Amino acid sequence: MSHTILLVQPNQRPETRTYSDYESLNECLEGICKIFEEHLKRLHPHDPSITYDISQLFEFIDQLTDLSCLVFQKSTGIYTPHNKDWLKEKIYHMLRKQAGK
């Protein structure tokens, strides 16, 4: 369980910056997926169910002006920053693990 802070900036306007904090990295990764799912629901409000594949999720992540996170390292007592590519790799492994269940 590593406390994680997610930093999101959807577009170039600084006022769109937000952050969320999570009790663990996995919760943060699931939070990113939920952000994308909410985006899809806004695009398709009349669809009863939303489906997507990982390439669509990664395209969404790439289109964000900024997406990064800070993960608390208990051993050093500091937060380590991570970028979009690192997050995409972690999301890929999380979803692959979930699909294997």
Describe this entry's structure for a reader.
The chain has 101 residues and is α+β, with helices and mostly antiparallel strands. It is 45% helix and 24% strand. It contains three helices and four strands, in the order ββααββα. The chain has helices at residues 25-43, 54-63, 84-99; strands at residues 4-9, 18-22, 66-73, 78-82. A hairpin with an 8-residue loop joins strand 1 (4-9) and strand 2 (18-22). The two termini are 21 Å apart. 12% of the residues are buried.
Primary descriptors:
Enhancer of rudimentary homolog, 101 residues, alpha+beta, EHR_sf, 4 strands, ERH, 3 helices, four-stranded antiparallel sheet, cell cycle
Quick overview of this protein structure:
The protein contains three helices and four strands, in the order ββααββα. It is α+β, with helices and mostly antiparallel strands and 101 residues long. It comes from Plakobranchus ocellatus.
pLDDT < 50 runs, ≥5 residues = none
Q: Structural class of the helix and strand makeup?
A: alpha+beta
Terminal CA distance reads 21 Å
Radius of gyration: 14 Å
Widest β-sheet, arrangement of strands: 2-1-3-4
Helix content: 40-55%
Set down the secondary structure blueprint.
Blueprint: E1 4-9, E2 18-22, H1 25-43, H2 54-63, E3 66-73, E4 78-82, H3 84-99
Antiparallel strand pairs: 1-2, 1-3, 3-4
Helix pairs in contact: 1-3
